[in-house]
Recover the amino acids of this structure.
């Protein structure tokens, strides 16, 4: 399953498991300019014309960034391995679901590694997976040192969109083992609940309305043949329902809605590294290039959270990059929702209106592709020009 297909089917499936009679009288829209700790809703009439459009044009572009998602077709790896006299617990390969699943796979990894261990702990990598794993180990009472090639804001996690949904974590749900499915669902549920209680505004976590738009009718998909992973995520997307045509704020086709969270990476990663240091954590900046160097570390319990770095460091031949390019427009504080349409998506953040929709497997380039910028701007412009005026 390619990324284009996954983005379309995952978001439509997530939004289409609806009960038609659950329309609300009021729409709770969360204003990012308000105190996020209170998560105070702004109640507006349930009408398609109260949704402000995104103003898409080239002269509103403020930056374009490129990142490489660490993808394993069989799914992320959380596994314990003995490397000489060192225990290595792997926690990497999350594809487009790193921020979403981070606290969950950190719990899986620390549950595997910490039981019975004494002494200091090492974490390799300082992206969101490394930082949440380090914080889980600290919370369990362990002294932690992070060994990392790059620090925020120069990690892959800083390039992420931050929407809460585990996108592109695996290729074919029908080939997932029962053990991986159990890990996946456990990680998603734990992370979902952990982020809900992360209410301090400095973490950049808030609830956000999502609109999933399709040119063709969205078919309800509650059959017993649904993959267990998809059905297991249904309960993690509240307020999900199909919109009637007179409720649809977009003039293109059909729409569904659901409520989800967004975690703004610049804020989240800064808060996590601050918490790590306050708790006594140490950081050593430098690249580990071989397992011999890992075995030589003074810590005999090592959590490998190196993302794509695990390909060379631990010879993971399955690990591949999936290139993503994001273009940011000037912030629009009045836009407090997310929109997903075909293979493009828009998230509203404090640091700008994020426009995404590139997913190139096997592409290692970190150079901005200007042709792609123009293509995605045109696709987003079509979507937001279609919005209904009142």
């Amino acid at each position: 399953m390619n990324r284009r297909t996954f983005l379309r089917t995952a978001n439509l499936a997530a939004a289409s498991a609806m009960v038609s009679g659950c329309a609300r009288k009021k729409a709770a829209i969360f204003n990012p300019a308000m105190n996020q700790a209170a998560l105070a809703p702004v109640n507006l009439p349930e009408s398609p014309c109260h949704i402000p459009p995104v103003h898409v044009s080239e002269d509103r572009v403020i930056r374009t960034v490129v990142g490489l998602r660490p993808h394993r077709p069989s799914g992320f790896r959380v596994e314990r391995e003995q490397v000489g006299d060192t225990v290595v617990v792997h926690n990497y390969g999350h594809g487009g679901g790193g921020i979403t699943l981070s606290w969950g796979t950190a719990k899986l990894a620390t549950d595997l590694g910490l039981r019975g261990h004494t002494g200091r702990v090492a974490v390799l990598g300082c992206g969101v997976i490394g930082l949440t794993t380090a914080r889980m180990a600290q919370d369990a009472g362990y002294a932690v040192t992070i060994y990392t090639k790059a620090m925020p804001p120069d990690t892959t996690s800083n390039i992420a969109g931050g929407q809460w949904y585990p996108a592109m974590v695996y290729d074919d749900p029908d080939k997932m083992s029962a053990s991986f499915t159990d890990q996946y669902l456990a990680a998603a549920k734990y992370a979902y609940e952990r982020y809900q209680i992360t209410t301090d505004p400095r973490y950049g976590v808030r609830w956000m309305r999502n609109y999933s738009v399709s040119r063709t009718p969205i078919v309800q998909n509650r059959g017993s043949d649904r993959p267990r992973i998809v059905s297991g995520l249904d309960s993690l997307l509240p307020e999900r329902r199909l919109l009637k045509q007179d409720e649809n704020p977009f003039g293109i086709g059909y729409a569904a809605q659901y409520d989800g969270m967004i975690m703004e990476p610049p804020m989240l990663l800064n808060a996590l590294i601050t918490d790590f240091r306050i708790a006594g954590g140490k950081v050593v900046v430098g690249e580990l290039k071989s397992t011999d160097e890992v075995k030589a570390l003074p810590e005999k319990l090592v959590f490998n959270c190196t993302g794509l770095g695990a390909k060379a460091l631990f010879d993971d031949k399955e690990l591949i990059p999936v290139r993503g390019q994001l273009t940011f427009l000037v912030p629009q504080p009045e836009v407090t929702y997310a929109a997903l349409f075909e293979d493009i998506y828009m998230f509203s953040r404090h640091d700008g209106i994020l426009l995404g929709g590139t997913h190139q497997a096997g592409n290692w380039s970190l150079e901005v592709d200007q042709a792609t910028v123009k293509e995605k701007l045109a696709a987003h412009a079509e979507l937001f020009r279609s919005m209904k005026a009142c």
About this structure: Residues 178-196 form the longest helix (19 residues). The radius of gyration is 21 Å. The domain at 1-18+75-316 is CATH 3.40.50.720 (Rossmann fold). The mean pLDDT is 88.
